[in-house]
Fold each of these.
Amino acid sequence: MKYTPCLLRRFHPAVLALVGVMGGMALSSPAVRAADAAASLTTALRARATAELASTAIQSGDASRGEAIYRRDAIGCVKCHVASPQARAEGQRSIGPEQTAIGNRLSPEQLVESVLYPSRSIAKGYEAFVVLTDAGMVHRGVVVSESPEAVVLISPETGKTTEIPRVDIEEMQPAPSAMPEGLADQLASEQEFYDRIAFLSEPQAGKGGTPITALGKIVVKEVPQPGVLHPLLAVALPNGICYSYDPNACHLVSVWEGPLGWADAAGTVTLNETAAESFFIREKPWRIDVGRVDFDYAWLGHEVDGDEVVVRYRLTDKKQQRVWVVAETLEVRSPLRQQIRFEITHPEGSAEVLTYWLQQTNYRSVSTNGQQAQRNQLEFLKPGQMMFEIDLVRRKRGQVLPLGYAVEQVEGPEPDRPFLFEPTGFSFGEDGSLFVSTRTGQIWRLHNGVWTRFAEGLHETLGVRVAANGRDVYTMQKPELTLLEDTDGDGRADVYRSVANCFRFTGNYHEFAYGPVRNTAGDLFFSTGLAASGHHEAKESKTGQMSSPLGYRGWVMKVDPQGNLSPFASGLRSPAGIGMNADDELFVTDNQGDWVASSYLAHVEEGDFLGHPATLWDRPEYGLTPRQLDYRSVEATVETVPPLDEAAYRAERKPPAVWLVHGDLANSPGNPAFAPASGFGPFGGQAFLADISHRAIIRVALERINGVYQGAVFPFIRPLASASYSTCFSPDGRLWVGSVGRGWTTGEPIIETVSYDDTSTPFEMQRVALTPHGFDIYFTQPVADAVGGDAMTVREFHYLYWAEYGSDRQEVRVLSVEQADLSEDHAVLSLRLPVEAGKVYELDLGYVEAESGAILENNVAFYTVNEVLP
Amino acid sequence: MNMRVLAVLLLINGGVSAIAGERFDIVVTDRAVVQRCVTPGLPRSIAVGMPGGFNYLFDPVRCRLVSVWFGDFLDFRPEATGRGGRPLSPLGVRRNLGTAEVPIRIGAEDRIPESVEFAGYRIEPATGIPTFLFAVDGVPIEQRVLSFGPGQVTIELAFPLPGTQPRLYCMEMTAVEQCEVSDRLAQPRAGLVSIPAGESWAQIRLQLKPTEESFVRQQPTTNGRLLYAMHCMSCHTLDGGKRIGPSFADLWTAPRIVRRNGQLETIVADEAYVRESILQPQAAIVKGYENANRMVDITQTLNEQQIDAVVGFLKNLKPAGT
């Protein structure tokens, strides 16, 4: 649960209420489902398993009939989804994503889902927002960029962009999918549904004609485009990868594998663009500074230089008519990795900063040799910089799921409205029954396949824990840690016992409380989040800060077996995950924001300060908060607070065990669940976390160096079906994952389980160990010979600890690996490179194959170094 | 005023009607319902709704009955939508019965308690009725609040350890017309009930005054422009641009040809036509849009007032070019 700056602090209740109706809530409502009852085909199809529909479509769907249906007016697909990139180039605007290449992007199951449930998953770049300004104006569109100062929306319908200063924004909320529900009802028969899915699932590569490939030598084709002056440049490289460049807008368009396209008898070229991935670069991407001055573009032509194409163009600033000349080259290292290089001739005496503008991208990472001040997708050059490089690392398509693992959905109960089943926490009892807390304050129990409601009427329960007696259940409500007792043993709680309530709660929506977890001594721990606004902020900041009403917000609190509540550790912002490993060690995750450079996982010991200074006023030296609050002090707030000593808290701050690298791994993580020693593959004892934004599971392998926790974080499964948040291992070794996703992102509240089938061995980096000379990477399967060398990239960076919202990676450096040795059994790769405390190391192994032939899909690890070895 | 009239008045003021937002109301049927939540001014509220339309708020910090209302229970929309966590609105006129302080005193009225410890509540399995459990200055107390008729509130206190000191209960009396207490209890003055030492049970019966206030439910937004942007704009432009459905440009002035029951007819839009188009989009379809995507059933999303607001917004559209 992350507070993003895009939603401002002033909420108009009416707007919020409205947005509630809109914000996807209605999608899962029984009322809406009931309304569908009359609409026969959609209802009939929704009643069946998506997988079954998809497989029927593949077996019995007729793609050519499906194409006819697709073009049929009444269905209207073509009204919103343009047929192809060409159609887009001809100026057709697309309200929804292009459809012809969709079979390359989505599985048949996903296609079935997107037709039957349009709002479940909205394609990246098509999620619309509605922004209400103070002046009462309403803007609707897709966010193309955001900064602390402004939000830029593009209307999918008109293509117009609107920049809205944040100070003017009263409210901003996601809008539902523009795609109508019940589209299947406009089909004549079930067979038509299968035909249509079959058509959409067909990869749309072959168009007839002679395929154009590079055959050892670069091929450049000029492909005329309607309505523009210069033909598109289409380049096939000897390594089998192709790309296109639009000279009219001076930007790279897309990259793909396979033939460049097909030439017919008359020599007309049809590009293989349906296989293409966008470069996410804007048309005419150059600006001076943040766009104060625009350029006129003049195309100077292209030339082939060895295996590369160099394009040249001239930029003339519209104010002073000064001239820059740019030579641009693309190096395509692999389908997933490209580097754009610019050689820039500046006009005499100019010292302006040029910027290069990307679109909202789905890259795994973008890095440059510029100023490292990426903001709003603008890459900043250094003043007068002549050689500029942009390194692009893409994500693979489709789901990454390690070998031997399977993801399944578990059918949840359907609470009576207005309550929802949004699982926020899991706990298993000794009899195998599962207790689940929900965001709307109920506790459900799953026993022998039957769901029953154990407790209700609670206040935003964000965690649950079966008590030591195996019968009763602890849960964390916003204002109270509560023990739910089933004294008559009828499977429903009848005493709701208050265990701890003497921490401040002022009613701000962001004052969440998470937990509890319990150690073997019987101590319980829970964590509290800061308020979003309304109280004391630690320091002025441009991007706004979380606020403390004091009274132990932003703390981990401890309740001993006698029921005494005491403050345990401070410095948390929005600590949405708390967990305990098998050795009774406590871990907390926090969410990126002010004073939190990136989401992290921290090892928490008594007295620790984890970094958010607004929590410090509760410490005894300030005399503002009693160690134990009572009925008189629990609600009292403090008018003024003294300044904090920044040098002191900087020095005191305990760094996280690992950074969960924002952007790459986690933007809003939930709790760590520690895997049992066996039953979940070769990862016993490691932490698994779900992330709401990435819809992903990540894996953390910790080690202690000089007594301090640090280690490596790896991607594990991505994406899951929904906005995953809570995790827990069941006694049989399955990982249970609950999805919420209301308010920050759109997601269906569901439960998924991840299970391991012990007949196959995954191929993953099992762990990364720090050595005196670098890192040892342990693999779960022996690696084939060729590892390391050019395919591998190691980057070093660090983060800022500051009052602003998050931190970019600082001083990103590509390190050269001095030596890479594979152990005799091919299970350990030793890297020799310089390692410094306080840095994060991205170990990107590139293409790695196991002796078994398996490919390392999760080929990147981020190792946080707190301590080094002598 | 006789009691019957009073009862009717109270029920009317309670405002049972719930046209808007009923999908988010917590509905009380045959069992009492407890819901912890934020209410305006009381972050740690415990709301209780009883069958028959009696509801109250309990404050677990000072262990006091804060207020009661008659009518529907709670609108849960602020918690169940968006980011949640916003104050819930009681669906009735709140009548304060609690003073700002801890209502129960041990020994003497002016003895401010050293400690007030909320211990939770017990749910009676058959009825769902909660009994609040707490201790004031170490004296354990159990409290139930019930109602035996319109405007009637009964506070029951039980003392598992009867003790040797008298206990006092303080109330806010502005809404109270009449106060009766069980045997052996005394009312030294209005708003103060004295329970003698050794007594293990006490009952305070209140009859409330009728209230002049009437309850108005907080509505979801009825900003027509906002509703248009969220629900209509992706298919219908205001400027004549063509999207999935016809534009609203010149909606009220330009004649348009529609197909109704298979027959073409020329009409100029009026409010009835616009309303029909929203409520029954398939009834009359603008020529050229017969094969377009069917319009969504907006009544699943918008309530009547919101639809009125959209119609109102469309009504006030200026003709294009002005």
Amino acid sequence: MPDSTTSPRISRRTLLKAGIAGGAALLLARWLYTSTTASQSTPPPSGALDGHARAIVGAIAPVMLAGALPAGDPVLLQELVAGVEQAIAGLPLAVRKEVGQLFALLSFSPTRVLIAGVWSPWHEAAPASIGAFLDRWRDSRLALLRSAYGALHQLVFAAWYGNPHAWPAIGYAGPPSLEVG
Amino acid sequence: MTAALLRQTPLPDPFRTGIAGGWKVIDASALKADLTLETDIAIVGTGAGGGTAAEILSAAGLSVVMIEEGPLATSSDFHMLEREAYPQLYQESAARKTRDKAINILQGRCVGGGTTVNWTSSFRTPSTTLAHWSREFGIAGFTETDLAPWFERVERRLNITQWQVAPNENNDALRRGAQALGIPVATIRRNVKGCWNIGYCGVGCPTNAKQSMLVTAIPEALSNGATLLTRTRAWTLDHSGGHVTALNCVGLDAHGTDPGPRRIVVRAKTFIAAGGAIGTPALLLRSAAPDPAAIVGRRTFLHPTVVSAALMPHSVDGYAGAPQTVYSDHFLDSLPVDGPIGYKLEAPPLHPVLVATTLCGDGAAHARWMRELPRMQVLIALMRDGFHAQSEGGTVSLQGDRTPSLDYPLNDYFWDGARRALATMAEIQFAAGATTVMPVHVSGESYANWSQARSAIAALPLKPLATPVVSAHVMGGCPLGSDPMRAAADLDGRYHHLDNLYVFDGSLFPTSIGANPQLSIYGIVARLASALAQRLVPTRMALHD
């Protein structure tokens, strides 16, 4: 039966610290991102995630999908990352840029540590530390961090549950057959 | 993906047959050169407004060019798969957001617009809404009686009739729970003909049963000789001296998201903006259309909607069967229209991506809820926004790249309604037999009985991006009215400051509708477009009588 006992309890003090540090780091990351990308005259091709972004999705998705995505199946994980890329490709340029900023912020070590609170590089990060990062953003007092969590949530869950491999576990048989005769 | 899922259905596809028979359909992403077209009427958008106008004006003998930003996808392309349909048929892959990302907007972007992907719910404009327009906005000639013949006409055209089949369990739970509590419910009318009751309206009807613009008005307009441009983004209107001379369009790339190399110019005698309540204001803003009272793009309404999930002891299979067949207006009708915000109760279709992205949280708790999908029952409450001083809606403005952004702040007036609605839905769900109810909120708490839920919902910290808010109805931003200082378009739908530009879509509404808006758009546009045809070709119309 579903319950919510997994909901973390974060003290007000931790939240305040994360809030202040987070706000400052976010400004820093935005500035860094803007100054390093302003010179690019053409935007990245639609949907293409770079290796860093793919590693981030590959690390975050198994934690978000714990209990749903079969653990240790590299093919399914690959399909999931491809699904996220596909989902991003369907977004307009302005939104793709925002998603790009989010991944830039998560892949840049200082901001990864300061804002996400993840100390190790993504491919080495422990699931517990990624889970704690997701909880912090989800429950953040900063609307910006909650919206960033929302973006990851929507991308990852759409990519997984759009995949027919996800359906047997949730009792969904897929669309009915329309074959006549 | 398995071959079985991708198979072509053996069902007829009249649109493809029409194209093979010579309909003029141009995909701008495939153009080898820029294009200039001359026509009597240029219509931006092919949804409920643009489609209806195209049929009526082409039938009057006028030459018509329809301009659609999205792709042409027809029944053969509809495989009932969310992962195909959302990127193909919806604005921003069904993930369009308000500026602060707090509201997710489901809005069509394809030939047929929202009508290709909506859930077929058909309501005439409520009389309380029309009375409010008359009283507060001085809109004359839009009473229930004035509009009745137009609603009758489009109801015949689109086969809008009472749904005779038993509701699916997701809808029946709404009926059962509400009735147990003495809350009146009614059956939704649907625009379907020979519906198979499979439940995939939201990803494109694979059997052509849904009487959307894609299978009715647009084929008729094309048969009348109209031209349809797809993957063509209407960008700016050229105008001088209060008169529009040309529409400048951008051909999109093959992927359909970014501008491609082709430019299309449409010169017309009359221009119709029907790109929806985000697209139409954006076109006017980009064109620097005269707007002395700064009305365009303001007062944009969404019926912002909150969600309540429940588990039933038996199977619900909310992904199967007509998605919306039961509703209750009790919490609209029992409140003064200009009092605390009221809400309409409905049930949504429960397909995996829609459910998974709407439920909060992640990890084991989210997975446990998803595993209960077959027993899941969900209700939604659509807020009637725009009728109160504290419900001014949102504002469409242009971003740096001149595409639109909608800022829609959620204030305490809204959250008060959201809290009442979450409580109402939980009570109905328990009355219908639910064993667990979860008001969809980031806390993810669920409750085992109504008294527990009632006290918890009273204390729930509701706020943006912690309580998911969704919308499938975008309205307003170019309101109708005779006073140019208060309205963007006159009572004929003509833009007050450009004499050959008409607004024929949901952006005309001075408030939200308080009901799923497709029939309001069909009926009102049918009247405005018929009057326009009468003025443009009086002799021809007379000959038809």
Amino acid sequence: MPTILLYAYMALFLVFIVAPIAAVVAVSFSSSSYIVFPIPGFSWRWYWRIVEYRPFISSLIVSIELALGSALAGACLGVPAALSLARSRHAAAGLLSNLLLAPISVPAIVLGFALLYYLSALSFGITFLSLFIAHTVAAIPYIVRTVLATYRALSPNLEESAAILGATRWQTLRHVTLPLVRPGVFAGALFAVLTSLDNLPLSFFFGSANTNTLPVVMLSYMENQFDPSIAAISTVQMLIAIAALFILDRLYGIERLTAV
Amino acid sequence: MPPPVPRRGLRPYRLAGPSWCLPVVFFLAVFFVVPLAANLLRSAPAGEAGGVLFYYEKLLTDGYYVGILLETLKVALVATLASLVVGYPVAYFMVRHAGRWNGVIVFFVVVPLLTSIIMRTFGWRVLLSRRGLLNAGLLDWGLITRPTDIAETSIAVYIGLVHVLVPFMVLSISSVLQGVDVRLEETARVLGAGRLRTFLHVTLPLSVDGIVTGCILVFVVTNGSFLTMLLLGGGKINTLALLIYQQFVTTQDVGFAAAMGNVLMLVAALCFGMQYWLLRRTGIRR
């Protein structure tokens, strides 16, 4: 493909990527109560609507608590295992890494379905705890994957030096290892949070008034009415995700996040 | 003279022992392995009329369900090929042409991942519906005389799927292309090969690992997704994942839904097995 055609193609591609997102942001400011594009006039009314419509706000809070909580739990479970597996030469290490990465490969709708009936049988029922367990299972592979990659790239000499200089195992972990693998932990946690926020196939099985996540509420809202408030809440959710990415970029640098 | 202290060989210092794996292995055994195994039992009704494989028989012999199974695979295949065709030039551009714009391109490839799938699907409905932008444009240019509803067709589903999946394809391919030495392509050009020939005989074969990884990832993700079909398909496209969703919402036929889920899992497992086999083979060939 001649270079000029390639540039033209790239321009088209960027339009393709941005178009539906821009359309939603535009519609969220529509003054009309049904969806037309281009919009007839500007108004904030749909943003007021999402403040008034309780389920949007309460499910957004559930979604954020769930995303942060499951990423944290996933990190507590996944990071020690990744540190151990990265340096292991045992034959079982490869097998175990595959187990820890496996939840990514199982379709979320199947995992959600299986967990719902299993946890109900264990009388966990449809509670926040069930939802939290399901999302933690899904978070583990993202964190293990990035921490494995980060830690494998580090030389064991750094930790060995600390140990030779008299640091205990705990001190080495706290002052040498964890600071070095932190970009990997944060990159994995970021993927886990973003996936959790949008994980409708896993969440909708555990839907109840207290455990509905934002995508579940949005889907059921869309089945009954089709107005621009969906566009407004989508835009808010996107802004939250962008803000999270921005903060992480300020703290740790985006290059180091995508490099893994 | 004391004997020399035996060195531990070249074994590197290890901070974390094997026991550090125990909590996560326990957690995943209880909340991942056992539930999926229980799902297998759930799909096999022992002692009922029709036998243990009742649901699987229904799924693989009833014409309606066979049709859905085939449609699931067809939709995933078409979406995968479309994402490959759309995504490959983007990955190539990112690695070979973007230069200092690389960061900007990466941003635009990653930005959809910051929005919910519901948002993106909703956006396509806005653009493609009867009162949407596309119809307005086509009417203005006189290409059509009456607005048509493109949302609620299978084309809308494919557009929506490619939009969701193409970032995965681009990132899979670009990470492999980055490792391809640009001098190999330059050598081919110097030796007289045209652009197309260089691409077909040098660049494309060297990036095949990225293509395999990207295609299998996209294929498996499509098999498990139902939201795009639900919101953009208008009932025109029925897939296995969509059927599981509908079974759960309406009929609550647990055993049958479990059986369909296991078939989806089997397809995913076969795909990843194939990926492992393909990548290992290319690895040996080199």
Amino acid sequence: MKLLGRDIPARELIGRIEERLRSRGLPTSEAAEVPEEGVEPRVDPLSFYLHSLEEHADPTQPLPLHTHRGGVGQLVVVAKWAFRKTCQVLINETLARQRVFNGHVRDSYAQLSAEVLRLRREVEELRAAQAPATPPPEPPIVPVRPRRPRAK
Amino acid sequence: MAVHQLIPSFVPGDATGQAALHLQLLLRRMGHFGELYAGEVGAGLESLAHPVSALRPAPEDLVLYHHGIASPLSGLLMHLPCRRGLVFHNISPAHFYTGTPLAEALISGRAQLAAMAPFVEVALGVSDFNCAELRAAGYRNVHTVPLFIEPERFAEANADPALLQRLRGPSPTVLSVSRVAPHKRFEDLLALHAELVRLRPEARLLLVGGYEPGSRYFKSLQRTAKALPGVHFLGRLSHTELVAAYRSAHVFVSMSEHEGFGVPLIEAMAAEVPVLAFGAAAVTETLGGAGIAFDRKHFSFLAELVVEVTGNQDLRQRLLQGQARRLAHFSAENSQRALAEALRETASPRPRPRRPARKPKRPRVAIVVQRYGEVTGGAERHAQQLAEHLAPHWDLTLLTTCAKNHLSWENAFPPGPDRVDGLPVLRFPVTRTRNIRPFNALSNTVFNRANERLREEHWVAEQGPLSPALLAHLETARDAYDAFVFFTYLYAPTVWGLPMVADRTLLVPTAHDEPPIRFGTYADVFERPRVLMCNTPEEISLIERFYPKHARARVVGVGVDRPKATPQRFREKYGVHRPYLLYVGRLEPGKGIPELLSHHRALRQRYADAPDLVLAGEAHMDLSGEGVRYVGRIDEQDKHDALAGALAVVVPSRFESLSLLTLEAFAQSTPVLVNGHSDVLVGQVERSGAGRAYKDLESFITGLREVGQERAPMGNKGLAYAKKYSWTKVVAAYQEELDRILEEKRQ
């Protein structure tokens, strides 16, 4: 255990408290998992949106069933599941055109984002050719796969 | 350049909205005009923030977008045809919400953050930690501009007394403030409390923050809490209740595992509560060595630490002193310095006003007043008289609105250049009319209690008049004027416009003791101008009472004209044949007219020979009554004729900074009968010896009798007093103050 603070005699304070814990028969240091904390990594927008469009392009597929509510919330989840099971044919029929449209959106985004990546590379190459001294660092264009919630 | 702000949601209690208001305050102090635009504007807050669809920035304007969780506004920002900036409030890591729909929105928010990077000129993080995330997301021009709080709003005097009483209890009381969300780790607070009650069975845990009663997470917390004594979920609190909660606590504890800044940490410092916090993300940075940060959640150890901090007075004092030092870092001044540095590289050069070929011989001064021209109102009349007397000496421009009616602020005059009595007037449209009934209801909810800035700013916005074009003019044309004279502390153009040009501003506050003068939002108005040109010593004492750090103040007042008057002319013109009491001015409840009518009615019932009551001016209420004569608006000559012929002039308002009517009555050798609840009026009567003050019906009747009996000697005293108010002296005082500004400018 570390205590940080300019206005406290940290070592003396820890010693005093640990002494008290010992006298109460309690362990003075518990094995605790220290959470990893740091700056969150960059989520590359081009690949993230492409991935999201791929995953969500088909509107006939359900989102994972989830509720943050207890009690009645569970009933709602069951009702949603039953609706999906019994009405999937109807859902497919209703959203058929949307599915086609979403597919086009996904594909055109994929094409455009690939174009953007190609153009960025070209710009970088041109810049590098024009100013060989010290070009300013560009943000990484290598896509980082975002951590995604696992679908149930 | 105008600096507008774009926020996803502007609703009460939202930290981003609070940050945007604070930023707007700093930007005004830096001379920038700017409005707030929000994706969602809370009900009733439309006067403070506009819908996003109304955002039409000019190419040279800067729009600062406040980013957090995924929002469609990020896409909008990238396409705005202006300069763009970003304020990053951080995003909770998605791993805390894996398997929930929120995770998608959190990751999307980070993707949007990275997507905006190439389109943004300047990025502001509220902590170094946030700035590090901005850099990792691809931003280059990144600056830390810390949030700030106003410590005085967390003083014990601002605590809700009922809740303070209810929460008062035995030590130790542990407090935590944040919305109930998994990454805030409320379960760890409960685990700490379980250890603490083993040591101190009377210990209490106060949990403040919004929660969803039906959520599975909250229900599990509730189940755990039920097994423990002394746990209180207080939910979302109003500002005064929040202060009561802070002020009831012995220790503030944060177990949160992710904070981009941690506003409650510094609020606790302001409320003089020792802080213990898990050192996650930006927490240790915010604490800056103050309070105690810990790296492990060893609950039995932490329970002993809570006991130590509450029981060891020496340690407690050292912690509080250290926290007070740390709190000073989160001042508006420090944030402004950081913001100025951040915007320095972004700022476009201010457009230089077209200067005349030859240097102007006379100083160029703008008088800013909420209404001007053919309008009724003491402050407006004051401004008009001053303008007329200063015009021979200065190159004056009157900056005002198109409004005529001070209740509705409806545009009555055409916008643009105008001339009133030969003086150039520049009128700007009012964008929002006022409905006085809901406004009065709003006043009842904010008067005579402590509020957070949002509620006070909201009241100012509803008070109006809202004229963004006037504020924009102050920014763009400020260099066209050598100085500004602002009139009346109360109205929005002064509250928001004065800070933009404070270094060359003379304020005529016309302050009187009314509830809004206690609002902290008026601090800039009284503390930042070069000088306060007050009307009476009582006014300075009043300002001193609420704003001890006010700008230099001097009593200047007004001059009084003494035109020749013929009472008979007024009597014949309006058919007034009996002795009469006179009131001239706005006829509305706020001026004490209902009380005056009631006293006059009682007077008539008791005495058959009671004088009539003559009322002149713009009426906003029913004036019927036996012996009451309403003569409508009258011109200047009629007014002086009426003043000269009155038995006495009655001044029934309790809110006066200087009664021009009183001085004009004195100038016509007529005594006055004034509201004794107004220190200013009582001071004027006492100094002159030319009238009486009343506080109730009996003193009204007694005063009237005395004034009637001694009318001539009192009138003479009044005349002698009025002669001291000369325009020559007033003009000299203004000249002197302007010379100081010009001298400084030259140096």
